[in-house]
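[job 4471] stage=fold_predict status=RUNNING
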Amino acid sequence: MKNTIILILGLLALNNTYISGQVTEGKNKTPLEGSINIMSSPDLYNITTKWAGEFFKLNPYLKIKVINLKDVNSARLSEADKYIKIIPDNYLADFNAEQVRKLTLGRDVIVPVFNSENPYLTEIYQKGISPENLALSLTLDGKQNWGTLLKNNQNTPVHYYMISDKSVISSVTNFLNAGKTALAGIIVQNEEEMTGDILKDPYAIGFCRLTNIVDVTNQNIMDKFRLLPIDRNGNGRLDYMEKIYDNVNTFSRGVWIGKYPKTLFHNIYSVSSSQQANENETAFLKWILTDGQQYLSTNGFYNLAYSEKQVQLDNLNDFLISANKPQEADSKVIFFLLFLLGIVITGFIVNSVYQHITYVKDLAPVSVNQVFFNADSVVVPKGLFFDVTHTWAFMDETGVVKLGIDDFLQHVTGTLTRVEMKKPGESIKKGEQLCTLVHKGKQLNIYAPVSGTIIEKNEALTGDSSLINDSPYADGWVYKIEPVNWPREMMFLIMAEKYKDWLKNEFKRLKDFLSDYIKYDTSFAHVILQDGGEIIDNTLADFAPEVWEDFQNNFINKAR
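[job 4471] inference complete, writing structure tokens
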């Protein structure tokens, strides 16, 4: 039965696998031929022509035409579906038709910066600077002092600097909700002048593009510069959602996830027709998301975080697969495949029901129909060893250790659609990646609680990864391993009762994590029930990939 299922699914997936390979393959083996037509907004024309020029060098037989949207009349605009459009956020409404594919290629990020020798540095990073206090200081005479910003009664003056750039000034004005109010400060002509002035003045604050203060050699903030932390909710302290200013990587992820004010950054999008998959367009966009990212910084823009690039590449891949699905097929072939697949599925269901009825153990499957879950509803069987990365381990009488995922994590992810596993014979070390849980393209990387060599993986998860949801401690186990250091590594694991106590704190952290999102975007409120504040089951299922990454970083990575 198992071999039959694998054969059928393999045949059905073969075409998709081939198409997927067109996108995920590294370099073009041969130069492309044909043409690519591109429309660009005026502010993105330089970076667009740079991308087009560099891609042409790799594909000299291509004809690439770039048109500035300011030169496009209404008649020509009606043919825009024949072009790739490279545009910022404020142009999206003009091309936001139903049949459209949209990818994020980069962003324009405006940041407030200050001198790292500022005597109030510690206080600044404890409290942050609220937009209200910043607006008050920047718009009213006599209020340009650090006392206004930090509410600490200090009269030390603040000296503001702003690059003479319409985009920068407009973003700052919108962020402060200043309207036509004149902003205080010194206008400088370029980033060299501004950075030089701030280096001389420990009490200065400047507004510029992120790329202006990033060291291209190490992709981090230049020496003696700091990003000014923003207290978005004005509560006088930097909350979890606001702590994104330590380094460029953390900041970039924070911008993507939505922790940075939207008025201070603009995404660069590619928008094109979803009617068909054009090989040349797809290759061009894939190149921009990989090798082409290097040209963003030299043109005043900032590249995507690594994980975000992977999401965009996945989106591009999904589009290509969808667009290349055959529109018509031989009805007899379809009927035969459906009939055969129906027989296989029926047999699989009958077999699963039989296994479920006859399976008698203390480790009963957890109901997946709960409306919400809490510390009392999470199953923690006695006799297992647990790790703070939400995994478990159990040694049987033969000395083999079985590994799996805890019940808490499967409630968070929702029904899993795929589990990416290692192969038997591979070695794993404690703290190294064990497997990847996938829910509709969104994923969490899970790390090994102990070290050893994989002697068996749970093949049943290949056909039905939701076994982890139904029975995380029995049918949903992931590996059997031969341990190499069990006596020592076991000492760092937790038994059931202590793990239950530890999970109570995890629930508190999860509520705080979700509450922070609700503070900044009320559309997230559905994840917590209004009555009693209970957490809804399958918490992350409907969240975007960036929230999954944030959960990964704070609940799994930091526990390693």
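[job 4471] summary: Residues 1-28, 325-333, 350-370 have pLDDT under 50 and may be disordered.
[job 4471] exit 0
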